[in-house]
Structures are given as C-alpha cells and as structure tokens.
Amino acid sequence: MEITPELFRKYHAGLCTPAEQAAIRQWLASSDLEAHDDSPSENEPIAGFEIWTRLDEQIAESTVPDQPETSWSNRLLSYLSAALVVLGLGTAFYFLTQKRAVNAVAHHKTSFQPTLITVRTRAGEIRKHHLPDGTTITLNASSQLSYPSLFDDTLRRVQLSGQAFFEVARDTLRPFEIHSSGYVTRVLGTAFDLKAYAGEPASLLVREGKVRFSKNAQSVLLTRGEAVLANGAVFEKTDLPDDVAGAWMEQKLVFNNEPLSAIAHDIARRYGVEVEIRDPELAAHLYKGKFQNPSLKALLDDLGYVMNFKYEINGNTVVILK
Questions:
Q1: Are 147 and 117 in contact (CB under 8 A)?
Q2: What single string gives the DSSP state of each residue in 258-278?
Q3: Which of 208, 223, 249 is the last residue of a domain?
Q4: How much is the pTM?
C-alpha cells in the first residue's frame, strides 16, 4: 500500500482501517522510526519532522527523476526550433542577396559605358601612346586619336584624324579597326603608317603583316612594302621602299611624287605655319625627294630651287610665288 500524507493524517486521527494501520506501522519500522500509539511525548515533534521528511523524499524519488529529462527535452526542442528559424532566415537572406548581386551585375553590364579617351598632338609635335591591349601608336603632328577605355570582346575600334604609325598587338579573336575620314583599316596584328587628315587624300603604307583598307564597297588587301593612295573611292596601289613607312618618326620628310599642295600641308603641320600658294599651276607640280630634319628655310630653299618658285615668310605665314 502506498503511504501518503493523507493516509498518515488518517492514522494520526485514528480513522485508519486495520490494514492501513498495519501498513503505516510497517513503513515506520522500515524507516527506523517508532510508532506512537499513546499520547504524544516530547520526542513526537522530532519524530513527526522525520516522518514528513521521509515522505517528501519518497515523493521526490517517485516524481522528480522524470523532471530533468522533460526539461532537457523541452530545451532541446526550443534550441532546434530556434536553429531552424535562423537557418531558414539565413537561407532566405543568402538567396535574396545572390539575386540582388546577379541583378546588379546584369544592370552593370547593360548600363556600363566605357569612357572615350582622346589623345591630341599640336603642330610640330610627335607623341607615342600605348593602348590597353598592348598596341603602340605614334601620332604625327596635328593629329587626334580616340578610343574607349575598355575594348569589347569582339572588336578593338579606334578613331583617327591625322597621321599615325600603328604597331598593333596581335589578337585573332578581336580584330583592330581604325575609322578615319570614311575609311576603315582592319588588321589582326601588324605595323603600318596611316595618313588620313580631313579634306586630304588618304594613304596607307604597310611595314609588316597584312592590312585591309576599305571605303564603302571598295576594298584592297596590302602586305609588307605595299601602299595605297586613296582619293575618295579611287584607290591606287603602289610599292614603296621599307624605310618610307613611319619615316617622319625619325624626323625625316619623304615625298613620293606628291603635288606641292600636299607638301604645303605637311610643311604647315610640321613647322606650325600657314602656307599659301598663289599660283594654281605651281600647286599641282609633283615632287619626289627626302630630307633629314631640315629647318623651314632650308626646306623651302631646296624645294624652290627644284620646282622653280620663290617664297616669302611674313610672320607665321609662308607665301609661295612663281
């Protein structure tokens, strides 16, 4: 029979059955406590305290051991629930940030516009410039080169107004194109001299490799030592010595059967002067010759002697007379 505080109260009040009385006496005997059937004594309070302590221990033994396990299980479930919540939030945050990152990259690719870089030279100035792809360009006097800060994946395109010597870095996946005064020069990797000043005939001289030169439907393919003179859509292909292309980079002036009107433009750009030719017939005369870094006066003296003209220098203007 289970001994409980209620049963012990009945026993103390004399309300227990004989069986209940026997169970209580047996419990007291096993607990090293004496039963007191007579009147209370001075030791009864101590005995009562011990009885209640024993009852509390018995109750604790039957009920308390399950509590830690239940409490620990509840805490474990709480921890797991919190972890799942954190994991879910972290996963959602990850995919949200990844989506935003992808969208940002896509927007950047579609909205990014490379900066246009422009390089200019003054009269009498020669300047060397390097492009991001490894190409080297040397600009002659009074020239301008424009190119994007970043070439695209399929084409390297630049714009030229004037004259420049190109040493193009080879890239078979990205051809190199030069647009100048309506002409298009296309290469993969080579070295050549391109002259295309606005309002003047254009020329292309190839030192190395192959170069395609075109305007609208007109096109010509040039190799080493070949040149083309272009006046509008009229192309004239010729052969030239190797030392002609880029000779101006070494302060040389090379004229190959050029009219005095074309030579006058070169003089103006090299020396920073204005040149006037008063006689139209004289302007059409052709000249062939080379000069190594001559002064303005020395050049005019030699040209005047060969082409039979006189000249005057008035400040910043050269006037050529017959």
A1: yes
A2: EEHHHHHHHHHHHHT-EEEE-
A3: 249
A4: 0.65
